[in-house]
Please model this.
Amino acid sequence: MRIHTVIIIACGILLSCNSSEKKNDLSILNVSEDNERPENPDKDTSMSNGQEVYMNFCMSCHLPNGQGVPKVYPPLAKSDYLMTKRVASIKAIKYGLAGKIEVNDVVYNGNMSALGLDDEEIADVMNYITNSWGNTNDTLITAEEVSRIDE
Model:
């Protein structure tokens, strides 16, 4: 008897999901009837790709939350350096970094090796880190911009 009740309930759920009535309230799914694209699909795609690059290349030093390691690896979260020194930040990822930098009033004196990323990957990871953990960047960083930055 119990199994029959479960089967009847399951069939009822399946039939109600496939009803002929059109459901107009798509807001719960965050989807519009016109199937509109996100506000800035290039930024969204870049950030998604950048998150993957970050997880593979940056997270071991700067940590999953972008906080870094005090006095060893600078934070990317709410980082004044990252947000005010765009070209220097791109150069650090593209060519590596050696020597002193100041981030949020703390001096770091270490080395970061070049990661061997292409210009698109650098742009993507920059878009990710400049729009995560309290950082906001309204100007998309592009592979073209990265390609114009020389050592």
About this structure: Residues 41-62 form the longest helix (22 residues).
